[in-house]
Every structure is written in C-alpha cells, then in structure tokens.
Design a protein that fits this description.
By secondary structure, the protein is of the alpha/beta class. The chain is built from 9 helices and 10 strands. The strands form 2 sheets. It has a 6-stranded parallel sheet with strand order 7-6-5-9-8-10, sandwiched between helices. The chain starts with 21 loop residues before the first strand and ends with a helix. It holds the Pfam family SpoU_sub_bind.
Length: 263
Amino acid sequence: MANSRPSEAHRSQPKDQAHEDEFVFGRHAVAEALKNGSAKTINKLFVQNGLNSDPVRAIVDKAKKQKILVSQVPKTKLDLLTDGGNHQGVMVAMTPYAYATLDELFAHAEGHDPFFVILDNLEDPQNLGSILRTADAIGVDGIIIPKHRAVGLTSTVAKVSTGAIEHVPVARVTNLAQTIKQLKDKGVWIFGTAMDGQDFRQWNATGSIALVIGNEGKGISPGIAKLMDATLTIPMVGHVQSLNASVAAGILMYQGFTSRGGK
C-alpha cells in the first residue's frame, strides 16, 4: 500500500515542596533531567546520605554547576518520597513535564516524513514509559495522548523511560478523534490494530504515518477505530492471544522502523 494521501511516576509530594512539583528518581533519569535542565525547571536535588560513588558525584557536580540546591537526606526520606521506588539514592524535584503542541511534533520531524505514535486511553504509566523508551530508540517523532481518562507524564513514566521522556515530545490533546482528522488533513496515514488486520510483517510504513495503540484492556475505542486508514495484526500461535500494550507497540514500531529503511 503506497502511503501518499491525496490532498485532504506515581507522584508523591513532600510537605516542604510546592504541590505542583514532579519527582524524578533513579540515576539515569536524574542525569537526563539535569542534562536537559534548560527545558525543565529543577528546584532541588535530593541525595542519600553517605553516597559518594562516581555516578552520584557526577550528578551532584552537574547540579551545583547549574546552581541547583542539593539536599542530603536519609534513605528513609527518599523511600517515602518515591513511594518505595528504586531511587538509587538520587531524586530531583522539578516542575511538571511540559507537553508539546501538534505543530511542534511536525517541527520535530522537519526534513523527513513523520512517524507518530497515538495512544488511545493508555492507563498504565509503566506502559507509557516503556513505549517512550522504544520510541526514542527508533526515532519516533512524537507521541500523542488524550488529556482525559489516560496516563500523562509522571515521575513513574520518567523512571521507566530511563531518560527517553527528555527526548521524545509528547502532545496531549483534548479530542483524539479531531486530532487524527487534523493529521489526515496534513497527509498522515493512520494505522491501528485489529484481529482481522494485515499481517504486520507486510506493513509498508513509508511516508507520513501515525500508529495507534489502544487501551490495555479494551483496545482501540470504536470511534477511533473508524478513523483508521488500515489495520495491522500480530499473529500469535501460543495459548495466550493477547500482548501487553507496550510489547505490541514495540513490535509494531520496530516493524515500522525496518520498513522505513531503519531511518
């Protein structure tokens, strides 16, 4: 099929921080947040008492160079603030993650045909973080999520993404169906998943495309399904006839990446 369209992170809040602060923890995620500190406002770095390894020292040095307040705290406090997460002794308090606009997603794809991923009411932050990580690995130009009844960018998402949240723009829209129609008007072909769809291994993902991944339990909602230009299926021969949303997304994204020549 030629793809050329005719014109047409669990959040925890310490008492001494503003209620709107977001918390990102784990050495890799914190290092990425500091690296991109110009785009996000980091208010404070929390470091576990007694930690002095090379990775932790590098994080502290970078924070100090950016004139970010560094606070030494006991491990019990970090355990509390991260709700028992694997913080590895470091955490930053920062303003919530900023969302991109649809125009900014297209600007991110300047010079080539865009490859977007649309998440239809995904609810699990672990899945969103994992999808962001894969999206960054293959060069997806942006992810689109609905504003209501869906997971947003949180500290858990940041942690699972291992820094990819800093590199893949995410647009949050009020009306997903209307956004898909806008994408179509810009020449983007929309692909979704369905049991009777084309075998994903024959997917021609060249051109301007957007891949829709449905909700973990319900799949793509009926109203959104009607807007697909084509549907894809992942053949399964085992006893379990469904895949985790992030696993399915990863398989399809890599097929798209391969179909587009690995670019």
